[in-house]
Amino acid sequence: MSTLYDVAKYAGVSIATVSRTLSNQMVVHPDTRARVMDAIEKLEYIPNSLAQGLASKRSYVLGLIIPDIINPFFSYVARGCEDSCRARNYDLAIYSVDSQEQEETGFYRLLRARHVDGLILANTVVSGEALPQFIHDIPRVYVDHASSITEDDCICVENRAGAQMVAEYLLENGHRHMAIVSGFPNSFAGAARLEGFKSTLTDHGFELPDEFIVKGGFDPSEGVKAADFLMTLDSPPTAIFASNDMLAIGVLRGLQSMGYKVPADVSLVGFGDLPIGEFVSPSLTTVFVDKFELGAQAVDLLLSRIEQPSAEPQKISLPVRLKVRESSGVRYGF
């Protein structure tokens, strides 16, 4: 098994230079770094992460808190985080939570067990003031969450703009009776999508009645229930916007089970562009979100905060776009 000394000798540098290269210190010249990395590859050297951590007072582990690992959207975000961590010689500890109590317990368990260098909080209901007190000194980045603590970094999907695109598209296709199945009420993303959709209708002189706003979550079964409720109203909608694709797939199942044809009877639009949406029938019109990029940029943002703890907080917006498929179209008779 190769040692640090072997790598240094092969690359023609000091052991200290190899150590600085492995810890990603900027003082190493790019040519020297390339020689060291080439030596590591040729000699198949495996760095001792424990020794590196002791020397740098870091664990080289980042923590990712997500609301539900079963939800494919967050699985893709986690994969983006993981790939970015791997490229930067970091490990990723993932913790899935589905309640406030579990979140706090999870933070304690995660931090005590792994001594993470930083936290990524993805669309959770936890904000800075709800965190355990001793975590406040740990660098953190919020993903798709409007932190009320101004010194926190965050990267957010353009949720409001995406919902506005959906509303504009449906209006252009003659729909006037539109409903929305929103996410969790305390979810920042769900609230932003509801506001964007509703405000666009208002700007065009149309109202969104309370009975056309159905609270959901991430589970397709909630979408089935929403479809059943909406389509039994005296004046049912001609188009439904589900604020995430899992809900949209549930709505689709519900509509089809009641005998409605999509989009001939009801147009349907989701949000998130999960791969499964392309394979349901009809294929799902949705708002594209680059989930891998969301995770990757969150890691970059967090590592930047770790390296420069006193830098100004960064607020990054990830653009979205509408992907029109088979589940939506022109309202009959328009």
What does this entry look like structurally?
The protein is α/β, with parallel strands linked by helices. The chain has 3 domains: 4-56, lambda repressor-like DNA-binding domains (434 Repressor (Amino-terminal Domain), Orthogonal Bundle); 61-157 and 291-319, Response regulator (Rossmann fold, 3-Layer(aba) Sandwich); 159-288, Response regulator (Rossmann fold, 3-Layer(aba) Sandwich), CATH 3.40.50.2300. Helices cover 42% and strands 15% of the residues. It has helices at residues 4-11, 15-22, 30-43, 49-56, 72-87, 100-114, 159-172, 188-203, 220-230, 245-257, 291-307; strands spanning 61-66, 91-96, 118-122, 140-143, 153-157, 178-182, 213-215, 239-242, 267-269, 286-288, 315-318, 321-323. The strands form 3 sheets. Strands 2-1-3-4-5-11 form a 6-stranded parallel beta sheet, with helices on both faces. A 4-stranded parallel beta sheet has the order 7-6-8-9, sandwiched between helices. Helix 1 packs across helix 2, helix 1 (4-11) crosses helix 3 and helix 9 crosses helix 10. The longest helix has 17 residues, at 291-307. It starts with a helix and ends in an 11-residue tail after the last strand. The model has no long low-confidence stretch (mean pLDDT 86).
Count of extended strands = 12
- Class of the largest domain in CATH? Alpha Beta
Taken as a percent bin, the fraction of beta residues is: 15-25%
Mean pLDDT: 86
Radius of gyration: 24 Å
CATH fold call of the largest domain:
Rossmann fold
Output the structural class: alpha/beta
Please count the helical segments. Answer: 11
Instruction: Please tell me the CATH architecture of the largest domain by its name.
Output: 3-Layer(aba) Sandwich
Estimated helix fraction: 40-55%
Shape label: elongated
Strand order of the largest sheet: 2-1-3-4-5-11
CATH superfamily of the largest domain: Response regulator
Summarize the helix and strand pattern as letters.
HHHHEHEHEEEHEHEHEHEEHEE
How would a textbook summarize the main sheet?
6 strands, parallel
Uncertain spans: none
Amino- and carboxy-terminal Cα gap: 73 Å
Total separate domains: 3
